[in-house]
Amino acid sequence: MTTFTRIGKGDRPSIFTTADQTIALIDPLLYGGFLEHMGRCIYGGIYDPSNTNGLIDENGFRTDVIEAMKELQAPIIRYPGGNFTATYRWLDGVGPKEQRPKRVEVAWKGVETNHFGTDEFMKWCDLVGAEPYLALNMGTGTLEEALAWLEYCNLDTDTHYANLRKQNGHEKPYGVKYWALGNEVWGPWQIEQSSKEDYAKKAYQWGKALKTLDPSIKLVLCGKDGHSDWDRFVLQECLKITDLHSIHIYTFDMQHYPNATSPKSAERAIEITAALIDLARTEMDYESFPHFSTKPKTPHRPKIAFDEWNIWNPIRAPGDKGAEEEYDVSDMLAVALWLNVFVRQAKHIGMAAIAQSVNVIAPLMTTEQGIVKQTTYWPLLLFSRYMRGQSLAVHVRSPAYTGSTSPEWLASTMDIPMLDVSAALGDDDYLNLAVVNLSDSESIETSLPPTEGTVQVFTVGGNENSIRDSNVWGSTKVSIIESEWNESGRFIFQKHSFTLLRWKVSPSRPCLDLSLTKATKDIAAGVVNSLHTRNE
Ligand code: AHR
């Protein structure tokens, strides 16, 4: 959560937070990834058995990709789609590879060899240290097939599908915890698109059956973008079987400011979804007056799974052509802003997954010779490495962006500070401050919270880059620049930069210390003044 005061020309920007202003635990699943059978994500991305440059292991997996995914510490990976899910027959993808059928792939108009399937995915997750998350086919698939897949993955019984897994060389069940009840079932592009009424009825029945077979699983309901009647309806009908409510948003614009500020719309979507979840839990039953209860219908309060998010222009990078986006500095700022949104809204987010992890709208690209870490890789890495633990409340005083936005409603709905900020207190007692300076022309000199000792500084973008710089094979223009900062007082956030600052704190320090330094007093006074201004 941040509060914001818009300042005028000549006023001094400031950021204020302290280690004891904790607001919510940041779920470790916030830095998840996503692999879909689409374009070069699986074949040529993570699985590349014909690579001749020594870049594969004995499974045919790209070792450079595995190393990068380990560096990103993705805690969970969603698979096998995406739109691909709606026609996927999981049984095609297990057993001896030479016997697996080759199929026409309907969603992305490709050919599916099925050489990479459930057991390969589990092995790959194990190698990168991530938890598997499977999406069920609620398009052409049946409940019987879904139950069979659950049995194959999770049961240790002497029964057909559990035995099939053992026969395929995997004695122990995989214990897959997270299962998605379909993907974007509402979408006109979907095979077997469904109405909200039909979906809710089916999802409830599937959920009941799946949880009967394995009560330990967590089910992810198929929501839309978080601010739709689909979300409201399916939550109300399916709350009992829902552990997480999935929403998807892709943002983009050709112009820098609407592009980089666009993820702010996801912040509003999260707030609205959280309200819809509470609405489904707490709506009063006045029909049964005077015996109605003031208790929530269920004490259980699902969180949001933002299991597809990113920057994607489907005209520039069409899905059936592999959706290979080349990301620039503006996109890098947008990704940092996306992640700031998740940290600020940590209270409501149970999981998030960037879509996708490799080659398809991804921070990581492969060539025959090696990998390219795109501009967007770097904020993802810094967040995953440092923005963990507790989300902290922050107050920001800065100029605001007031121009056009994408979506258009954003400008009239939310404040857009030129400095977009989130903060986290790590278990290592470091305070981590993530700051996006959206301005493509101005550095912003800012008063920071009081720091003790040396501040580690990681900068991506900034003065060294132009807003359209990108990384391609053989040319890395954008990466992390590390430095230290020992001055107290003001810090200069370079134009179009993402900066992560971190310093050691004593977490028990009271919010208003009597031994305030001059800088602290100034900042505290700024906060108090701004509160006055807003109360007037
Ligand atoms: O991630 C690409 C596609 O975007 C996914 O397959 C689909 O779920 C979404 O529309």
How is the secondary structure organized here?
Layout: E1 2-6, E2 14-16, E3 22-26, E4 33-34, H1 63-72, E5 76-79, E6 103-105, E7 110-112, H2 118-128, E8 131-135, H3 143-154, H4 160-167, E9 178-180, H5 196-213, E10 218-222, H6 229-238, E11 244-251, H7 256-261, H8 264-282, E12 303-311, H9 329-344, E13 349-354, E14 364-366, E15 371-373, H10 377-386, E16 389-392, E17 394-398, H11 409-413, E18 419-425, E19 430-437, E20 444-447, E21 455-461, E22 480-485, E23 490-493, E24 497-504, H12 518-535
Parallel strand pairs: 1-17, 4-5, 5-8, 8-9, 9-10, 10-11, 11-12, 12-13
Antiparallel strand pairs: 2-17, 3-16, 6-7, 14-15, 16-18, 18-19, 19-24, 20-23, 21-22, 21-24
Helix pairs in contact: 3-4, 3-5, 5-6, 6-8, 9-10
This protein binds alpha-L-arabinofuranose.
Alpha-L-arabinofuranose binds at residues 36, 81-83, 183-184, 308, 355-356.
Short description:
By secondary structure, the chain is an alpha/beta fold.
Written description of the protein model:
This protein has 536 residues and is an alpha/beta fold. The strands form 6 sheets. An 8-stranded parallel sheet has the order 4-5-8-9-10-11-12-13. It has a 7-stranded antiparallel sheet with strand order 3-16-18-19-24-21-22, with helices on one face. It has a 3-stranded mixed sheet with strand order 1-17-2, with helices on one face. The chain is globular and about 70 Å long. 27% of the residues lie in helices and 22% in strands. The chain has 12 helices and 24 strands. Bound molecules: alpha-L-arabinofuranose. Alpha-L-arabinofuranose binds next to loops. Alpha-L-arabinofuranose is lined by residues 36, 81-83, 183-184, 308, 355-356.
